[in-house]
Prior knowledge:
Blueprint: E1 2-3, E2 6-9, E3 12-15, E4 18-22, E5 66-71, E6 74-79, H1 82-89
Antiparallel strand pairs: 1-2, 2-3, 3-4, 4-6, 5-6
Amino acid sequence: MNLGHFTYSHGICSQQDSTWKVVSFAADCIQSPEWGDTDEPGDICSICGLDYCGECECPGPTHDGYEYEYFGDVLMARLISPANSQDQAQP
C-alpha cells in the first residue's frame, strides 16, 4: 500500500529513521479457533496474529509513549524518541 511518501508493508510504515506502525484496536481482534462460535470478543490481534493482551506488540490507540497520525484513513503510531521530538519541534 502506498501512503504518500511512505512505504507500507505488513503493518509497518517506514520513512527514513522513523517507523510508523498500524494501530491495533481491540474491537478488530479475531476469535481463537478453539473458542468455537460465540458472541465473545476476539483475543487475537488482527494485524500480527498474536494474543492481543499477551504477546502482541502492536500499538493500541491509547498507549503512552507513542505519537499518532492519520495517513489517509489509517491511524499509525510511532514511539516518541528524542529524534522524533526534534522532528515535531521544527516548523
